[in-house]
């Protein structure tokens, strides 16, 4: 009887001990569960904050892209409006249209010239004769030296050639066309000055005039006035011609030297 009672007490004591251990394990598990729940909560809060920040950054980035795109579109529209206005103005302006057409013609002519130069260069490169080329260069040097010696020797040019040179220069000046009135006025004055020398050469007293420094003959005495000259100077007065004659007397030597050198080189 006593043995059974001891075994029952021992069994009860073991049950109590196991129960206490189980309760302690349950408590520890509950603590671990609560700690894990808190960590998960903190992780969720942190993740949510990071996600919210990332979403705000993405929204700000989208807004910035939209602003830049809008600004770029406005800039492009402004530039296009300016270009359209310039193009419309150019098309509506007759003078500018003519300038554009003239520029196109010049570009086309330049293109054709470049093509011709390239063709001529390749053809010349294939057919060039160095011996003949050296002979041409030698001949050119000889002729140049001869012209320089003749110019330094002071050989006179006949007055008929001088008259032709002056006449060609005057016709070139009167045939000049420019939208600048100052250029036309200067060309008119220079042509009036050259007429004095042309008339002197026509009357066979050019060298006498420049050597003695006498007054230039009247421009009205010459019968060599061209049609382009008459058209150019139809509205000019006689005082302009007389003032051109007085001015040309002081510049006679330099003008004669330049034109005579040009005539000799021709």
Write the layout of secondary structure elements.
Layout: H1 2-92, H2 94-127, H3 130-153, H4 159-174, H5 181-202, H6 206-212, H7 227-232, H8 238-250, H9 252-265
Tell me what you see in this structure.
The protein has helices at 2-92, 94-127, 130-153, 159-174, 181-202, 206-212, 227-232, 238-250, 252-265. It is mainly α and 266 residues long. It folds into two domains: 1-92; 156-265, no CATH class. Helix 4 (159-174) runs antiparallel to helix 5 (181-202) and helix 5 crosses helix 8. The longest helix is centred in the N-terminal third of the chain and has 91 residues, at 2-92. The chain is rod-shaped. The model is unreliable at 214-266 (pLDDT under 50).
Low-confidence regions: 214-266
Structural class based on helices, strands and sheet pairing? mainly alpha
Secondary structure tally: strands: 0
Tell me the span between the first and last alpha carbons.
160 Å
Number of domains: 2
Topology as H/E string? HHHHHHHHH
Mean pLDDT: 74
Helix content: over 70%
Shape: rod-shaped
- Radius of gyration, in Å, reads 53 Å
Share of residues in strands: under 5%
Count up the helices: 9
Main β sheet profile: none
